[in-house]
TrEMBL record:
Keywords: Coiled coil, DNA-binding, Isomerase, Topoisomerase. Residues 11-118 form the Toprim domain. Gene3D superfamilies: 3.40.50.140, Topoisomerase I, domain 2, Topoisomerase I, domain 3, Topoisomerase I, domain 4. One of its GO terms (biological process) is DNA topological change. Residues 62-89 form a coiled coil. Belongs to the type IA topoisomerase family. This is DNA topoisomerase. Residues 322-332, 353-368 have a biased composition (Basic and acidic residues). Its EC number is 5.6.2.1. It catalyses: ATP-independent breakage of single-stranded DNA, followed by passage and rejoining. GO terms for molecular function: DNA binding; DNA topoisomerase type I (single strand cut, ATP-independent) activity. CDD domains: TOP1Ac.
Length: 833
C-alpha cells in the first residue's frame, strides 16, 4: 500500500476567485506553486441578443477585467500545470469553466480542487483529491443566468412602458421577495389590532400573576373587579417537572444572516462580507452552505474540547454523532461529483487507521455547516490587520453557536402556580429553576445567576397547597394587541428560505436589491398614540386613570414604498404566473435537477421563454385599466397615472412618486408626495390635493399658488400650521400663538426656505436645547461635547447622577451614521439600554 500524494516539483498555477486567499494558499503549497485570482467572473452575458434560438450563448470579456485576463494568460502560458480552485458552488463551477473556455484549457482533463476552509490540512487534502469540472453544475448556473436575463430584459421594459421609464425593474427572485413585503403591508393595513384589557394580580410577596382571560369592555372589567372584592382566592401548584431547552442548530448561510441581524444588528449583506473575510483568513469554513452537519473529525475534536474545558461528559449532547456528515453533499448547489480513488488524510481526534489501500473509494469532502476552523481559538487577537471589531464579533458569534450546537440541552425544573378568580377565570404563573447549564455554559451570562437562584420559584414552593391567598392589588391595563409587525431583514431571509425563493448564497443580494431599487426602505415606524383608561383595585377600592400610550412602534423594519406598491400590484395583476411563490420555488428545484443531470437546461429556458412571451402578449392585447383615463393634458397615455382633479395627477417620476401639476398645455410642474399614502385609497379618490403634497420637503415659491396650495403654509409643528411670513423686520414664522424670527437666514430667497430648515432653527433655539449636545439618540442616551472631546452621556429617570462613556472603538461616523447602528454599539459595548 502506497501513500497518495501530489506532485510538488511541477511549476503549478492555482487559480482562485479572491486575491485574499492567494498568499495563504501559496504558503501551504510551497515554492513551486503560484496562486492567482480571477476576481470573480471574467466574462459576461450582456443582452438577449447574445443568445440564439437554440440557446447558444456568446459571452463577452468583461472590459473591467482586461488587465486580469492578460495577467492570467501570461501566468497560464508559463505554468506546467493549471489547477482550478474556484468556490464550491454553481457560480464557482461556472467561473472555472469560463477560465477553461477563455484560455483553451481542456475541460475533460484540467484539474479542479475543492476545499471549504483555508487551512493547511484542507488545502493538502484537496490537492490529493482533484476532480474535473462538473458540467451539470455549469449548465445549472448558465440556466439561472439566462432565466434572470430573460425576466429582466423582457418584463422590465413593460414596467417602463406602463409605469415609468426610470430605473424600474422586475427580477425572478427580486419580485417574489418584494411580494413578501407587499403581502405583509396589506395585512398590516387590514389589522388595526384588538382593544383588550390585560389583568395582573399581585398576591403574597408581590409576585405578579396573569389572568387567563382578556376583557374587551370597561363594564366587564369593572364587574370582574367588583366580584374580586368578595372572592376567596385559592392557591394550587403543579409538581415540579423537568423541561429541556435544546441547543441552537448548526449555522447555515440563512441562519448566520438571521442570527447576525438579530444579535449583532448587522445586515445580511454585511454579514456575508464579514464571513468572507473570516473565511479567506482561514478562521471559518465556507460560508455558503445549507448543511447542518460537521465533519467527523471536527465532531471528535468538539468532544475532546468539551471534556477538557468543562470536565464533565454530561455537557456533550447524547446525539452529537448525528451531526457528523455522511460525506454525501446536501442540497447546496453542489451535487456529488464522481468519486476519486484516493487515500484519506490522517486526522487527529478521529479514528487513526494506519494505512489504507490506494484504490479505496472516497467521495469528495462534503459541505459542512459554518464553523471555526480552530476550535481552540475562542477569540481573535489583534495580530491580523484585516480583522477589525466587527469581524471579531462575528467570529465570536460563530464560535459560540458552533460549540453550543454540540452540547447537551439546558435542564430546568418547572412549576405552574394557579390562583382561582371570579367569573370562571384564574391567575397563572410558570416559574423555572435552572438545574443543569448544558449548552448555556458557553456564554454563561449574568442572567443565568438569576435562573439558578430563582426566588419566585422557591417562594411558590413555600405556599401551602389549597390555601386561601389575599390579593394586594389587581390592575387591568388597556392594550392594543395582535398588531401585525413589519419584517426585519432577518425575517425576510427566513421567509425566502421557507418559500424556496433563491439560494442561501443569494439571499443577502435579494434583500439588498429591493432596497437599492427604492421599492423598500429600512425605517423606524411610529406607533399609534392611544388614550388609555386603566383600572386598579386596591383595598377593595376601584380607581381609574387615563394615560396616553404608544402601541406598535417599530425600529429598523422593512417598509414598502409607494413605488414598490405600484410596481407590485401591476406585476401580480399581469405576471402572476411568473412571479408567484410556487413557480419561483419550482424553478429553484428545476435548477437543482439540472445540476444533478436530471433535466436538460435548454428545455427549462425554452419553457420559461414561452411563458414570458405569452404573458406579454396577453397584456398587449388587453386594455390596461389605467390607460382608459385621460391625462391632465386631455390625451390618453399608457403610463401609470391617477387623476386627482382637472390639473393634478399622481405619477411615478424619475426619482419616485410625484404630483404632476399641469397649468396649461405648455407649463407642467411636479410636487413632492407625502410618504404615508395608501395607494388603494388614492385610486378610489379618497385623498384631496392638500392631503397628498409634502410641504415639508417642498420649497416655498410662487409654484404653490399656481398649483392650488396655500402659499405660506410650510407644514405642521406642535399640531399647528407652520406659516412663513414677511414683516417689517424681515422673515419670521408663526404657529398657533407663537412666532420666531428667521434672521438667521439672512438674505436667502424665500423660495429656498424649506420646512426642515425652519424646524431646525426652532429646535436649536428651543430653551430645552443643550448647547453641548452633539446628537440625541434616545430619551436617555446622547452624544455630548466635552473639554477633551465628544463622549456618551447616559441618564435615566431612576439615576441620581449621569454616567459617561467613551466613543473609542466605534468605527463609523457617530455624528452622521445610522442611529440604530450607534445605539446597538453602545448597548453591546457598555450594556446600557
Amino acid at each position: 500500500m502506497s501513500t497518495k500524494s501530489y506532485n510538488k516539483s511541477k511549476n503549478t498555477l492555482v487559480i482562485v476567485e479572491s486575491p485574499a486567499k492567494c498568499a495563504k494558499i501559496e504558503s501551504f503549497l510551497g515554492s513551486n506553486y503560484k496562486c492567482v485570482a480571477s476576481f470573480g467572473h471574467l466574462r459576461k452575458l450582456e443582452s438577449l441578443d447574445d443568445i440564439d434560438q437554440y440557446f447558444n450563448i456568446k459571452y463577452k470579456n468583461d472590459e473591467k477585467k482586461e488587465k486580469q485576463i492578460d495577467k492570467l494568460r501570461r501566468e497560464i502560458a508559463q505554468a506546467q500545470e493549471v489547477i482550478l480552485a474556484t468556490d464550491d458552488d454553481r457560480e464557482g463551477e461556472a467561473i472555472a469553466w469560463h477560465i477553461c473556455s477563455l484560455f483553451d484549457l481542456p475541460v475533460q482533463t484540467t484539474k479542479r480542487i475543492i476545499f471549504h476552509e483555508i487551512t493547511e490540512s484542507a488545502i493538502q487534502n484537496a490537492m490529493m483529491n482533484p476532480r474535473t469540472l462538473d458540467m451539470n453544475k455549469v449548465n445549472s448556473q448558465q440556466t439561472r443566468q439566462v432565466l434572470d436575463l430573460m425576466v429582466g430584459f423582457k418584463v422590465s421594459p413593460v414596467l417602463w412602458k406602463y409605469i415609468s421609464s426610470n430605473g424600474l425593474s422586475a427580477g425572478r427572485c427580486q419580485t417574489p421577495a418584494l411580494k413578501i413585503i407587499y403581502d405583509n403591508h396589506v395585512e398590516i393595513a387590514n389589522n388595526p389590532g384588538n382593544k383588550l384589557y390585560n389583568t395582573t394580580g399581585y398576591f403574597s410577596g408581590g409576585i405578579a400573576f396573569e389572568l387567563n382571560k382578556e376583557y374587551e369592555s370597561e363594564s366587564t372589567v369593572c364587574d370582574f373587579l367588583e366580584n374580586t372584592c368578595e372572592y376567596n382566592h385559592v392557591f394550587t401548584r403543579s409538581e415540579p417537572k423537568k423541561v429541556f431547552k435544546e441547543p441552537p442548530q448548526p449555522l447555515t448561510t440563512s441562519r448566520i444572516q438571521q442570527l447576525a441581524s438579530n444579535e449583532l444588528h448587522i445586515s445580511p449583506k454585511e454579514t456575508m462580507k464579514l464571513c468572507q473575510t473570516l473565511y479567506e483568513e482561514g478562521y471559518i469554513t465556507y460560508m455558503r452552505t445549507d448543511s447542518k452537519k460537521y465533519s467527523a473529525e471536527f465532531v471528535e475534536n468538539v468532544k475532546t474540547y468539551i471534556i477538557q474545558n468543562y470536565n464533565d461528559k454530561r455537557y456533550i449532547h447524547n446525539e452529537i454523532d448525528s451531526l457528523k456528515n455522511s460525506m454525501k453533499r446536501e442540497n447546496d448547489d453542489t451535487p456529488s461529483p464522481p468519486p476519486e480513488k484516493t487515500k484519506p488524510k490522517k486526522t487527529k481526534g478521529a479514528s487513526k487507521k494506519a494505512k489504507d489501500a490506494d484504490n479505496e473509494v472516497k467521495p469528495q469532502e462534503a459541505h459542512e455547516a459554518i464553523r471555526p476552523t480552530h476550535l481552540e481559538m475562542r477569540d481573535l487577537g489583534d495580530d491580523n490587520d484585516k480583522i477589525k471589531a466587527r469581524e471579531k464579533k462575528m467570529y465570536k458569534l460563530i464560535w459560540e453557536t458552533t460549540l453550543e450546537s454540540c452540547m447537551a440541552p439546558a435542564e430546568y425544573y418547572s412549576i405552574t402556580a394557579n390562583i382561582s378568580a371570579p367569573m370562571d377565570a384564574k391567575y397563572a404563573l410558570t416559574s423555572e429553576l435552572l438545574n443543569f447549564l448544558g449548552w448555556k455554559i458557553v456564554a454563561n451570562d449574568k442572567s443565568l445567576k438569576d435562573e439558578k437562584e430563582n426566588k419566585t420559584y422557591h417562594r411558590l414552593n413555600q405556599i401551602k397547597q389549597g390555601s386561601t391567598i389575599k390579593y394586594n392589588k389587581i390592575t387591568c391595563k388597556f392594550v392594543l394587541k395582535n398588531l401585525k409587525q413589519h419584517y426585519t431583514e432577518a425575517k425576510l431571509v427566513q421567509l425566502l428560505e421557507e418559500k424556496g425563493i433563491g439560494r442561501p448564497s443569494t439571499f443577502s443580494m435579494i434583500v439588498d436589491k429591493i432596497q437599492d431599487k427604492a421599492y423598500v426602505k429600512k425605517e423606524d415606524i411610529p406607533g399609534k398614540r392611544v388614550i388609555c383608561k386603566d383600572f386598579e383595585l386596591e383595598d377593595d377600592t376601584i380607581s381609574e386613570t387615563e394615560t396616553t400610550r404608544e402601541f406598535g412602534n417599530e425600529k429598523n423594519k422593512l417598509v414598502i414604498q409607494q413605488m414598490g406598491v405600484v410596481v407590485m400590484e401591476f406585476l401580480y395583476k399581469h405576471f402572476n404566473e411568473l412571479f408567484n411563490y410556487e413557480y419561483t420555488s419550482e424553478m429553484e428545484t428545476i435548477l437543482d435537477k439540472i445540476s444533478k443531470g436530471e433535466k436538460v437546461w435548454t428545455d427549462c429556458c425554452n419553457t420559461c421563454l414561452g411563458e414570458i412571451d405569452g404573458l406579454i402578449g396577453k397584456l398587449k392585447n388587453a386594455e390596461v385599466e389605467h390607460t382608459t383615463k385621460k391625462t391632465t393634458t386631455g390625451k390618453r397615455s399608457d403610463k401609470y397615472e391617477i387623476q386627482i382633479d382637472d390639473t393634478h395627477s399622481y405619477i411615478i417620476g424619475k426619482y419616485g412618486p410625484v404630483i404632476k401639476c399641469t397649468v396649461d398645455s405648455k407649463k407642467t410642474m411636479f410636487l413632492p408626495v407625502k410618504k404615508d399614502i395608501d395607494i388603494s385609497i388614492l385610486e378610489s379618490g379618497g385623498y384631496k390635493l392638500q392631503d397628498l403634497v409634502d410641504t415639508a420637503t417642498w420649497t416655498v415659491s410662487s409654484q404653490k399658488g399656481i398649483c392650488g396650495i396655500n402659499t405660506n403654509v410650510l407644514g405642521t409643528y406642535e399640531d399647528q400650521d407652520l406659516i412663513l411670513k414677511k414683516g417689517k423686520f424681515g422673515l419670521y414664522v408663526e404657529w398657533g400663538t407663537n412666532t420666531k424670527s428667521l434672521k438667521v437666514f439672512g438674505n436667502r430667497p424665500i423660495e429656498n426656505i424649506t420646512y426642515n430648515d425652519v424646524v431646525k432653527v426652532l429646535e436649536e433655539t428651543s430653551p430645552n436645547a443643550s448647547s453641548n449636545t452633539v446628537r440625541n439618540l434616545t430619551e436617555t442616551i446622547s452624544i455630548r461635547r466635552g473639554k477633551f472631546g465628544d463622549y456618551i452621556f447616559y441618564k435615566n429617570e431612576k439615576m441620581f447622577k449621569p454616567e459617561f462613556f467613551k466613543l473609542n472603538g466605534f468605527e463609523g461616523d457617530y455624528k452622521s451614521c445610522d442611529k440604530t447602528q450607534l445605539i446597538a454599539w453602545i448597548n453591546d459595548t457598555y450594556h446600557i439600554y
